[in-house]
Amino acid sequence: MLATRLTTFISTRAVQNTTLRCIGTRASYSTGPDFTVTDSEIKIDGKIYKKDQWTNVSPTTLSRVNRKLHLHPQHPISIIRQLIESHFHDFKTFHDISPIVTTQQNFDDLLIAKDHVTRNRSDNYYLNESTMLRAHTSAHQLQGMRSGASKFLISGDVFRRDEIDASHYPVFHQMEGVVYFDHDPVKTAEQVNADIQMGRLKEAENVKVVDDTIIKPENPMQDRHTPETLEAVASHLKYSINSMVRKLFADEPDLEVRWIDAYFPFTSPSWEVEIKYKGEWLEVLGCGVVRQELMDQAGLHDKIGHAFGLGLERLAMVLFGIPDIRLFWSQDERFIQQFTPGQIQKFQPFSKFPPCIKDISFWLPNKSWEENDFCELVRDVAGDLVENVELIDDFTHPKSDKRSLCYRILYRSMDR
Ligand code: FA5
Ligand code: MG
Q1: What is the C-alpha to C-alpha distance for residues 143 and 238, in angstroms, rounded to an integer?
Q2: Ligand 1 pocket list (CB less than 6 A)
Q3: Where do the Aminoacyl-transfer RNA synthetases class-II family profile domain residues begin and end (predicted)?
Q4: Which DSSP state fits 73?
Q5: pTM reported for the whole predicted model
Q6: Residue 295's pLDDT band (boundaries 50, 70, 90)?
């Protein structure tokens, strides 16, 4: 979400001039919201959002709001949510917070600057200038901290205009975890040691974890922390994640995991964790030590905390052997019937159809171009039939200076 994006090209194509009513009762195990889109407003479950120049959410995306895959007991996303919740068994859990949030919650509360690229229309789904579909579960960190719980998990669906491939989807699920301690090196170290002795925190013996990250100026300790407290909190975070990975992947003896430095405006230092899957590193989570300004906003001036945001689809893909992220949205009974609440079973492909490849090329009308807007257009037109969109040629005419792009679109049906 922190990728650099510039301007917007295709705007509210699918929403403009459309009056569309959808009552999501298609699947036996999920219902979407009741929504109406007109020229001037979007009404979701009876609540009205006035459209403005920021509105860019499409009916395709709205139809996925509240499918709540993470709450259907038989769905792999829900199975993994419950496994993680049972690992962090003494955490307070929130899993039914509405994904419609204010930009204040999604950005400002998290110290994301007004001009930060992550706010771009081309990366997010806006209902209007001040309301959007949450782009991460971090949007509720402050809410969780204000609830009084010192350890909590928040799971839910999140929405991002993103590229299209087997591990990226515009709607996916995250689980946020936050833990905070007294800002006192002795007390914090005692709490961490107690967790280790109780067996809650363990090294991931069965998985190979590579972590050569160190605290350095590019990924610094915060001024208000001492090296001792930071050390204790960071090791609690790393033990927590590694022991969760160890538990989840107990039956995968050769799993490789690595920690790398990262940047988030709301944590410092920050890291990401990747798992080797099908020969490639797959990023599964982001985390770090919570910025003290955020703790202050929650009234927790004398506490120090860590937070993590897990990508549930990514973890489920590795754990259940699900090769394509679109499968999680399959309404085909042959998908859901394979799974049993509380159990990890390897996915058995129920049909394999050959791909159909089509190339499309076009001249750009002007210099501004956003690939995410193109991906959104492709998804609106072709839906989940699209498996991959790849730029295969980028040509600028030497005389006219006009630019032409050629994309290869790979279509493949998952179930028919
Ligand atoms: C975040 O969203 C941060 N809020 C995470 C965080 C929380 C950092 C708390 C610090 C403290 P990021 O954009 O990297 O970070 O996304 C987190 C995870 O979501 C990724 O590691 C990945 O597993 C998953 N993810 C991101 N984009 C997609 C996508 N389009 N499809 C599926 N999963 C995705
Ligand atoms: Mg990331």
Answers
A1: 24
A2: 1, 136, 138, 160, 162, 168-169, 172, 174, 176, 264, 267, 270, 283-288, 307-309, 311, 313-314
A3: 98-341
A4: T
A5: 0.86
A6: very high
